[in-house]
Amino acid sequence: MSRRMSQQRSEGSREYFDLYRQMDLGRAATALAAERAMHPLKYIAPVASIAVLALIAALPWGLPSEDRFFLPLLPVIAIHYWSLRYPAMIPEWFVFVTGLGLDILTHGPLGYWALIYLAAHSLAVLSEPFGRSGQIARIVLFVPSLLAVAALAWAVSSVYFFELADWRPFALGAGLAALGGLMIIPVLHVLAGSKPGRANANLARGV
After folding, report:
1. Which of 112, 143, 189, 200 has its CA 20 to 30 A from that of 151?
2. Strands, DSSP E only, in the chain?
3. Separation between Cα atoms, residue 195 and residue 86, nearest integer Å
């Protein structure tokens, strides 16, 4: 009698476990389906956000030339964010074309911002292992990366014109771009959503 009751309890526990596992698999499958539905957006958002910020940077806005330097640094925010979070989603050729397009639209030296944007992309990719700790780590990496990009822009400008460029517009631009990042990064974070592969891992583990 006791053995039969024990077997019944064991079978009941097994059925409960199987039902719980099926529910978890169902939730994982639903999450995977939702992720697949959002998959195109995950590829469009990085490219679109960089392109939109580049177009904003190309607009005149009626600002004096010495106060406009923060505008071309706005795409750097998106380039750094996406390259640090999803390096494979930002091809180097797109970063180069974005910078070259900005050079053409602003009548600047051809290749100037293309070089700066490629440097920003490379710096973010090299920093990617340090950004795996989470959003806070990526924000901490953003400020020194932005300063490094601004310093490189100053150095390239000095070499191009064969004289030391005034560092103050570059410093002011970096500061204003950092403040702009406080508004732009949360928007990019919303566009990023969950990290790809999360639901796949859950489904594979069955949890």
Report:
1. 189
2. none
3. 9
